[in-house]
Design a protein that fits this description.
Blueprint lengths: L1 E5 L2 E5 L10 E2 L7 H6 L7 E4 L1 H7 L1 H38 L5 H54 L4 E4 L13 H11 L19
Parallel strand pairs: 4-5
Antiparallel strand pairs: 1-2, 3-5
Length: about 210
């Protein structure tokens, strides 16, 4: 995650950079293209944040995780029933095999394998859709974290925020994790995770 400000407007980038320990750079309000062009240096004022702790401990994130668990339990119950059904078909086929000619057995075996393949595809599709719904809900939490981190950093005059996991030693006064977490819990006490079954099909990537 990288934060930077350009022309008096915050821009945020969230991607696979999260967790890689990259610096979250906050350029002060007075910074401008002219300053950058003239090489005017900006005195760094560093803050530290434990992003993973905030995303894990916020009340909204916990409620999202609980909703995800509920969907998982529901899916697993259906999967268990389907597996039981397929197992019964397989056992019946094995029991009937001595009385079947090669062609009939091959046809029934092929039908069974198609059912198994379709079931596996369905399970994988549900798993992906569930993760899409979960990520969509967590994106709302993450966006709130970004916004409030920017606000708190500004009020403290900080222009660089680094991940706590990437700092060996630092003054505890530099750590803004707790105030950001408190602000996130106040601003976003809960998020409703979208029903995975209601999501449109994912766009295929080439």
């Amino acid at each position: 995650m990288i934060f930077h400000r350009k022309a008096g407007r915050w821009l945020s980038h969230t991607s696979a950079l999260i967790g890689l320990g990259l610096t979250l750079a906050l350029v002060p309000v007075g910074a401008s293209a002219e300053q950058a062009a003239t090489g005017v240096s900006i005195k760094p004022v560093v803050g530290v944040i434990d992003l993973q702790a905030i995303l894990a401990q916020s009340t909204a994130a916990r409620k999202i995780a609980s909703q995800r668990e509920g969907y998982l339990n529901s899916y697993q119950a259906v999967v268990a029933e389907k597996e039981k059904e397929l197992r019964a078909i397989d056992e019946k086929l094995a029991a009937d095999r001595p009385n079947l000619d090669a062609k009939t057995f091959a046809e029934r075996r092929g039908d069974f394998q198609e059912k198994v393949a379709a079931f596996q595809k369905q399970v994988e599709g549900q798993r992906r859709t569930l993760e899409r719904a979960y990520n969509q809900a967590m994106n709302e939490v993450q966006a709130t974290v970004i916004r409030l981190t920017q606000e708190i950093a500004n009020t403290r005059g900080m222009n660089i925020i680094v991940y706590r996991s990437q700092v060996f030693l630092f003054d505890p006064a530099m750590d803004i994790t707790d105030p950001v977490l408190a602000a996130v819990n106040k601003a976003l006490p809960s998020v409703t995770m979208p029903d995975p079954d209601s999501l449109p099909p994912a766009k295929e990537t080439r």
